[in-house]
Design brief:
With about 525 residues, the protein is an alpha/beta fold. The protein contains 16 helices and 20 strands. Helix content is about 30%, strand content about 15%. Strands 10-9-8-7-4-3-12-11 form an eight-stranded parallel β-sheet, with helices on one face. It is globular.
Length: about 525
């Protein structure tokens, strides 16, 4: 081995290395002992360069600062100032973020407190006055009505008014039992089963208890009023215990001291539960008489013929609606054209879709009769009874009339037509039940001319809804671009563009952006438009 190699390198045998540094092929417990001449190594030997100078090795090893040295450096004036500066910056930054959050909270618009709402505030009610006519055959009864609960669910109604179904001996107060079901319509067990089926679909059942519904005077003779009142009190308690969600009484203007009795019956229902409803119906269209009936009660829904006196112009309809809302003030309203009749009996056929849009978007509860969703008319076909026309489910419904029935007049046919009255009813009912501005929003009228009735529904920071109804028989420019919103809406004017939610006429696509400055409505067209809240 050369002299130079002895100076630069030391040969170390593998068995002298630490065990964990030995190669896997090293012989256990044996040393490889020789190095071949000429610098070549035998298998198992490595050459490692080892510093001869121990001082150099020690200098190459860094052990860091000691505790005393660290404390000395940390206590130097430069590091002390640096630490204080960083600490001050941290707290200044934290206080700045806190102040910014407080400013945002203070300046942000406050959310309005949501009003307390019961189930009848959240959607439409549906009247089924005659079970046999509704089911389309003379054998209709409570058991058969169960099969139509799914259909009511597709209409998105919150409850239905049933009957009257109690035993009523015509014009005989002693032969009238408000607690007993007419045997031709079913049994108490049938009624309980119907209640359970409706409950599963979240549909409430309201029972009509108008006493003498088969007779000439709904409330018998005035000299029998005390007897009738006693029967009513007992019946209310009985049916509340049975599980009904509310009651309806009609022709209330014919009952002597009606406001007093309504207050008493309202007290019975509310004492049982605040979630129970009382509906009173009147054939009157006189606003003063209507207000008199509401005098002693709150949370009472009153259906009347008030809107039926319209001359079907935009300006007159606007006048009727605003007068009623101003007169009832904070009272929750219901909207219908009669206490029991069909919409098509009061409204011309070309305005049915317009009135559906109107009733669903006014502040209050819309109330419809069976058949309103398809435009059913009383005595529209020969052979149909005037007061209870047969519901047209499909073409086979003609078997119960003396005339023919076309597909577009039936539930089946209209369900398949995206432009039908039934489709519009379902869409409006769906929007009415889930949009806060339509549920309990403020109501503001925009005056646009004699033929157009337009208004805005808005609630706090939620989506706004603009309703434009053209009652005229010619196309009308709405001229909404320059209209200013009433005070309190959070913006000085309408937006330049709005989005179409639906139209009562074919030809417009949902989601279309419309420029209000150039908006024009077709004859008898109604539009439901929406636009976002802007702070």
């Amino acid at each position: 081995m050369s002299q130079d190699n002895e100076v630069d390198m030391k040969e170390v045998e593998l068995n002298e290395l630490e065990p964990e540094k030995q190669p896997m092929n090293a012989a256990s417990g044996a040393a490889v002992s020789a190095v071949m001449a000429g610098g070549s190594e035998k298998n198992g030997l490595v050459k490692i360069k080892v510093a001869d100078d121990e001082a150099e090795a020690a200098a190459a090893k860094f052990t860091g600062l000691s505790k005393e040295e660290l404390l000395k450096v940390a206590g130097s004036p430069g590091w002390v100032r640096t630490r204080w500066a960083l600490l001050l910056l941290f707290w200044l930054g934290w206080l700045g973020m806190l102040a910014g959050a407080v400013v945002i909270i203070v300046r942000a618009p406050r959310c309005r407190e949501l009003p307390r709402q019961s189930w009848w505030h959240k959607g439409a009610l549906y009247r089924i006055g005659d079970l046999q006519a509704f089911q389309g055959h003379s054998a209709g009864d409570l058991a058969g009505l169960k099969g139509y609960i799914d259909y009511l669910s597709t209409l998105k109604v919150k409850g239905f008014v049933l009957g009257p179904i109690h035993k009523n001996q015509k014009d005989d107060v002693d032969g009238t039992n408000l607690e007993q079901i007419d045997p031709t319509l079913g049994s108490k067990e049938d009624f309980e089963s119907l209640l359970q089926s409706a409950k599963k679909k979240s549909i409430r059942v309201i029972l009509d208890l108008t006493p003498n519904y088969k007779g000439q005077d709904s409330w018998f003779q005035s000299m029998q009023v005390n007897t009738v009142a006693t029967k009513m009190k007992d019946a209310l308690s009985y049916w509340l215990q049975a599980g009904v969600d509310g009651f309806q009484v009609r022709d209330i203007e014919k009952l002597e001291n009606a406001p007093l009795f309504l207050a008493q019956w309202q007290n019975i229902t509310k004492s049982f539960s605040e979630d129970r409803l009382l509906i009173a119906g009147t054939g009157s269209s006189n606003l003063h008489q209507i207000l008199n009936l509401l005098e002693l009660t709150k949370d009472l829904l009153l259906t009347s013929s008030y809107l039926s006196v319209s001359d079907f112009t935009g300006k007159h309809t606007e006048l009727l609606v605003t007068q009623y809302l101003n007169a009832t003030k904070s009272q929750w309203c219901s909207w219908s054209l009669s206490q029991a009749g069909l919409l098509a009996s009061f409204v011309p056929a070309h305005l049915l879709q317009l009135y559906q849009l109107l009733l669903f978007t006014l502040p209050g509860t819309p109330v419809f009769s069976y058949g309103d969703e398809i435009g059913l008319k009383a005595a529209v076909l020969p052979g149909q009874p005037m007061k209870a026309p047969v519901m047209l489910w499909d073409e086979s419904s003609s078997l119960n009339t003396s005339g023919s029935v076309s597909s577009n007049m039936t539930v089946k046919g209209q369900s398949e037509d995206p432009g039908s009255l039934l489709t519009l009813f379902r869409r409006l009912s769906d929007h009415r039940s889930k949009e806060r501005s339509l549920l309990h929003g403020d109501f503001h009228v925009l005056s646009l001319g004699p033929d157009i009735f337009s208004y805005i529904r808005q609630w706090d920071q939620n989506e706004r809804f603009l309703v434009v109804l053209n009652f005229g028989d010619v196309g009308q420019p709405a001229r909404l671009g320059a209209s200013s919103l009433p005070a309190g809406l959070g913006a000085s004017s309408l937006p330049a563009r709005v989005e179409l939610l639906l139209s009562t006429q074919p030809g417009r696509s949902e989601g279309t952006s419309l420029e209000l400055e150039h908006l024009k409505l077709e004859p008898y067209e109604g539009l439901l438009l929406h636009f976002p809240y802007v702070a």
